[in-house]
Amino acid sequence: MTVRDALNSAIDEEMERDDKVFVMGEEVAEYQGAYKITRGLLQKYGPKRVKDTPITEIGFTGIACGAAMQGLKPVLEFMTFNFSMQAIDQIINSAAKSYYMSAGAIGCPIVFRGPNGAAAGVGAQHSQCFAAWYSSVPGLKVVAPYDSDDARGLMKAAIRDPDPVVVLENEILYGESFPVTDEIISKDYVLPIGKAKVMREGSDITLVSFGKMVGFCLKASEALEKEGISCEVLNLRSLKPIDRESIAASIKKTHRVLSVEEGWPQSGIGSEIISIATEECFDDLDAPPERITGVEVPMPYSVDLEAAALPTVDDIIESTRALVGK
């Protein structure tokens, strides 16, 4: 099952399960979605529940927040999370804070979803990773699926959650296929928000990542296995709340940790991983915790410069060798 089909089927099943769920965003209806995530939903549920919007993120995000506060469950698509900057006031000051500021009287069960981070050749204004931005905000939950398992389970969890949830997808992953079990394709399959997954067991070092970079870590670990280096790969899945317990348990097992992300280095997810490592596992570390990030520069449009600005499998292999000492 492709990640695209996993997301589409999860939204479809949740709309069928709960008539309060509706979809809105730019080109989600008549055009079937810019990335075809909402394919077929207009024909099945009609224009009242699958709504095309004008190109005004602050406007339709405000409408979605108001609808959520009145008991509906909007699934709001941003064509790219870069465009969510137009709606940042509604996401932070309306959705994230209302439950706390109303002493629990006003909930906001809303899903903000769309592609996050770099795609390919789309320039600086369409390539930014917002994982660190949104995961720093109290009141928001933030998840980042890697494979079809993640996509189905986390999307269903996000739609059923009573709080606002940011779902950071990746455009490059939409077309990738992953094996799925009968359990994963069950309509009742829901993953817990706040729980990481060990994708590969290892003993020499923990590679921690989320989204597309999980795949890079798995490829690096396969190459390193041939050199006698055993890597444990931890897929965070959830960035807020982050699974401190699983991160710490893995580091205490391997005694080394390398965080990998596409986002910028300062105040990034890697900074949080290193903080957890030093706070929870300081006496268990055999080497300083390290991170690989995107380069601190707006994303270049040039193909060669874009490649140089993002982490690679070779970067992970080289850093792991250095940390393990082989």
Write a concise synopsis of the structure shown.
Strands 2-1-3-4-6-5-10 form a seven-stranded mixed sheet, with helices on both faces. The chain has a five-stranded mixed sheet with strand order 7-9-8-11-12, sandwiched between helices. The protein is α/β, with parallel strands linked by helices and 326 residues long. The protein is built from twelve helices and twelve strands.
Please give the structural blueprint.
Elements: H1 3-17, E1 21-25, H2 41-45, E2 50-52, H3 57-69, E3 73-77, H4 88-96, H5 98-101, E4 111-115, H6 131-135, E5 141-143, H7 148-160, E6 165-169, E7 197-200, E8 205-209, H8 212-225, E9 231-235, E10 238-240, H9 244-254, E11 257-260, H10 269-281, E12 290-292, H11 303-309, H12 313-324
Parallel strand pairs: 1-2, 1-3, 3-4, 4-6, 5-6, 8-9, 8-11, 11-12
Antiparallel strand pairs: 5-10, 7-9
Helix pairs in contact: 1-7, 3-4, 8-12, 9-10
